Amino acid sequence: MKEREVRRTWMHIDMDMFYAAVEIRDNPSLKKKPVAVGDNTMITTTNYIARKYGVKSAMPGFIGRKLCPHLVFIKPNYPKYRQASDQFKRILAIYDPKLESVGLDEANLDLTDYLVDNKMDNDLGKIFIAQKIREQIFMDMGMTASAGIACNKMLAKICSELNKPNGQTYMYNDEVEILKFMMDLPVRKIPGVGKVNEHILSGLNIYSCKDLVEKATEVYVTFTEYAFQFLVKSALGMARVMHEKEEGVVAQRSMGVSCTFRPIHRYNQFREKLFRLAAELESRAHQNKVMGKTLVLEFKSFKFETKIKSMTFPHYLYSQNQFKKYGILLLNQAWPIEAIRLMGLRLSNMRDRRKDKGVKVCPEVQINDADLIEPPGGPDGNQQETQDQGDGGNNQEEDKIVFSDTMHHPSNDQNNANLDDEGIEDPEIEQKHDEENMKHAKEKLFKQKYGPGEKKKKKIKGEKEILSENSRSIQSWNNVPRFHMDKIMGKSEKEKRQERVQKILKKQNQRGIESFMNESDKYLSKSDHFVKQFEELSKIKNKNDGINNCRQIRNKLKKKEERQQKDIDSGMFGVPKSFKPI
Question: Where is each UmuC domain found (predicted)?
Answer without folding.
Answer: 10-194
